């Protein structure tokens, strides 16, 4: 599994757990523009978007554009926002933090192993 960051800001990834990063300040395009997600797909080796899980904290900037390209997506709602609550009621997978995100990923891996 590759671990990547797609952000509207930049940080030094040297000595980090990330495999690569895609940053709007470098690419000249930012979320929610689908182009930044396409750049991330290319950086991941042009794997199928369906093989990617995008985790973000903004329905409009993260979840919706990722899903529009065929990626799996997960919304993190650290602050129990009404927007995320409404999204969850419509079927958007929502977790409270990165620990729950890890549980979600483990659950996905278990489902794939069973198939």
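Sequence proposed for the structure above (115 residues):
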């Amino acid at each position: 599994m590759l671990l990547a960051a797609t952000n509207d800001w930049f940080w030094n990834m040297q000595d980090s757990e990330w495999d690569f990063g895609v940053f709007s300040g470098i690419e000249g395009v930012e979320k929610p523009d689908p182009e930044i997600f396409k750049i991330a797909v290319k950086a991941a080796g042009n794997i199928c978007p369906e093989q990617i899980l995008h985790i973000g904290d903004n329905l409009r900037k993260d979840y919706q554009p990722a899903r529009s390209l065929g990626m799996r997506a997960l919304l993190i709602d650290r602050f129990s926002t009404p927007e995320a609550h409404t999204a969850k009621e419509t079927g958007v997978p929502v977790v409270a933090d990165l620990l729950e995100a890890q549980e979600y990923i483990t659950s996905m891996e278990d489902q794939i192993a069973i198939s």
